Amino acid sequence: MTQEDNLRDADEVNEAALSPAEEARRRKASHSHGHAAGFGEPKARRVNFNPLAREPKSTVQIGDVRYFDGAELSRPLEMPPRVRAIMLAAMAVAAIIGCVFLGQYLDQIMNEPIRQQQALQENLARESSYDFPLLASLMPLSDEEVMGALTEAGYTLYERTPVGTDPDGGFEVIKLPADVSLEEAGLMYVKGIDKLSAADAVKLLKGAWTLTVSRKTGDDMRLRYADFASGTIEKAVQGAMQVEGLENAEVTDSGVDDSGNTYQTGVISTDNGTYNWRVSVIELDEVYDISGLPNTAFYVGIRFTAQA
């Protein structure tokens, strides 16, 4: 037998001696090689390759189980110093802002009512002259003459309805307290007296009066103001009669009307004519819906009407 025949017989013997497991392994390796060679099948992914990681993850294989290296999970979880400094600064700013808002809120809840009460008492105690005009002396004058007389008296006036704007004649003007500017009063009246605090309402009303002149059904003048000093309705009525020179006038009627006003009426004769007069008083909080107004404050109205 030749040497070539001997080698061929040896190969055949080796092939016959391969175990079924070895044959399966070789077949699988050959199949994988065919895929890698480009026979239309996807290439096998590299073992331990993570496409989201910059580097392959190291693993340890024990038997058929592969374990990933857990060293990265056990490292300390610490943020960079720069990021930590920014976060601490942001937390400090947030804490300061929170303290400021909390302080303002607590101040508004706890101290604002005290400040308002103090301001109310200060405005009630301040000296503010009314300087009431005598309606009997103004009754025979025209609108322009009445307005001229008020201006010459040095009053600070807020014209709610200026002279000449009503086609029927008449006007309405407010005399302001001496310590309240025209601009400040204008803002308060635009806002509405009912919207003011009790302290601001007293500041605006004490020392002020409103004169309304009407010519629609004859000559009619009304003077209205808030009384914070009389203390009782009866004294407020007597005080109103006194400022208009009616303290000795004959009273023809008195009582309480359907609106709750305590009133007195009568007739007065002057060199300029004979006029019907009426004085009425009601609690101030019946006129203005303002919380905190003193219960000894009254709304006073004085009316003069020329007899036909």
UniProtKB/TrEMBL annotation:
Residues 1-41 are annotated as: Disordered. This is Teichoic acid transporter. It comes from Adlercreutzia shanghongiae. Residues 1-11 have a biased composition (Basic and acidic residues). It comes from the Bacteria. The chain crosses the membrane at residues 85-106. Keywords: Membrane, Transmembrane, Transmembrane helix.
